[in-house]
Amino acid sequence: MATHKSAIKRNRQNIKRRAHNAQARAAIRTQVKKARAAIKAGDKTAIDLTRLSQKELAKAAGKGLMNKKTAARLTSRLAKSAKKVSR
Questions:
Q1: Where are the domains of the chain?
Q2: 5-86 maps to which CATH number?
Q3: Residues 50, 82 contacting (CB under 8 angstroms)
Q4: Environment class of residue 62 by beta-carbon count within 10 Å: exposed (0-12), middle (13-18) or buried (19+)?
Q5: Predicted structure pTM score
Q6: Is 67 exposed, middle or buried (0-12, 13-18, 19+ CB in 10 A)?
Q7: 50-83, pLDDT tens digit by residue?
Q8: 20 to 30 Å CA-CA from 13: which of 4, 29, 36, 44?
């Protein structure tokens, strides 16, 4: 357990950041899941949901919440599967 004042503060900050990041990651996963479900169902809203997912993934990658290559891979796969629905 931390005993220095600065280390105690750092622990508090880490706990807050971890909670915030976990919530943000969960929101992104939910958004991607909705897009995938719409694509699978063949809904016309799949394209809009895919765009929203791509936006969220790009934001997360930009903020360092997830690896940029991971975000790019997910974006690419979503776009590829959404293209099938738009035809």
A1: 5-86
A2: 1.20.58.110
A3: yes
A4: exposed
A5: 0.84
A6: exposed
A7: 999 999 999 999 999 999 999 999 999 999 999 9
A8: 29
